Amino acid sequence: MDNKEKFREVISTGYTFSGDSIILGTSILDGEILENNQVKAPLKTFNRHGLIAGATGTGKTKTLQVICEKLTDKGVSILAMDIKGDLSGISQPGEANPKATERSQKIGIEWKPQGASTELMSISDEKGVKLRATISEFGPVLLSRILDLNDTQSGVLSLVFKYADDKSLPLLDIKDLRKVLQYVTAEGKEEIEATYGAVSPASVGTILRQLIALEEQGADKFFGEKSFDVEDLLRKDDNGRGYVNIIRLVDLQSKPRLFSTFMLCLLAEIYEKFPERGDADMPELIIFIDEAHLIFDQASKALLDQITTMVKLIRSKGVGLFFVTQNPTDVPNEILGQLGMKIQHALRAFTAVDRKAIKLTAENYPETEFYKTEDILTQMGIGEALVTVLNEKGIPTPLAHTLIAPPQSRMDILSPIEMDALVDKSSLAREYNESLDRESAFEILTKKLEQARNQQQAAEQANQEAKEQKKAAEEPSMIEEAINSRAGQTIIKEVTRGLLGVLGLSTSTRRKKSGWF
């Protein structure tokens, strides 16, 4: 058996599974495409997470698109982050072209233009179903991780949440949390200290500053109502196919903190609400996180620990996480070690740093006798990748240089008109895009403080009136003092005498003139 036949046998055996699977492409050896020597991935192990990596322009997004199409055909739901805006074309059928047909024939599959059932979503001002969560749902623990608080500050935040729960103060958005934080160190200080203990104004000040930093990245649009129900991600279309739920994040590339906040909240909500599934034959939901470095670039150690924990636990819920990034080194080793499926597109070696990164990347893949991984990483063409997956027993498959299947949907962006059409026909958009601002902690405390001020003003006014009445009752008037005093009596007599004298003189004068005397 020559080397090519041996390689073909290794791939054929290593990528044959007893359960259902999806076809990723066909193998390549020494630059030759081995037709119908298919490289597959078992549905059963998609919840063991994965990585899609490669330099810009090597075909990562198209690979992501192909996997989404094939998973939804099997009834699996998808949640994908669209940073660049070019994944949304999956909603429209692709255009037939000779290259796609030829590549499909070599792989041994039929190519036909077909779009996927797609739901556009957003956590910002982008078009789509608005994804929101309340501050209460986020909770003090996750919020402390996002705000990078120390233990003392985290304790203060937990106290604030406890107080809000005890006093029935709904924490729905950032202004609610800010109002309660201000209240516990000002008007409500005595009440808080009597029941919960002293609260450090310095800690509250730090929390408020961190909230402002998060709000500046657009968190005010994410926190609020109506809160999104993650179970709506599992909807199926009329043909039983899963939906591709695309979160448009083209305006969040410069806002990694908000992106991390959203992802951590999403994973926590899914873990809490989805039932345990055990060792199921297929996953419920696969989440693709494009430009994954945005999560990790500014993440604190506490946040990384939280994400790592979620990655370890969430697979038991039938959920798989796939990180899409340029270089595997963008993903922390603690998480990289949890990823069972790896699809590595070409890397570029322009600098010494690049060459060092390529060498490290090659060491992340199974050893193979058929080619030198470090060299293949820089030699692969567009739409080619090194692939290894977990088989149904959890064992890595042989490393395969693979010609990836072409997408059946459009490999381009949607026009504004097409996006509007998708949103207009969406039942989820009609349900979630109406912003609610019901009475919550902000309004309740504002009303309480206003009532307290009114009562205080009324009390002060009543007290002033009482003082004036008392003063009026206790002190004689100026006239009474004047009358009662000796000097006053003398003055009155003189005035009276003067008045009568004037009157008398005038009267006698009138009588003389009239001839009375």
UniProtKB/TrEMBL annotation:
InterPro entries: AAA+_ATPase (IPR003593), HerA_C (IPR033186), P-loop_NTPase (IPR027417), T4SS_component (IPR051162). Pfam families: HerA_C. Residues 46-363 form the AAA+ ATPase domain. Residues 453-464 have a biased composition (Low complexity). Residues 465-474 have a biased composition (Basic and acidic residues). Residues 453-477 are annotated as: Disordered. This is DUF853 domain-containing protein. It comes from Solitalea agri.
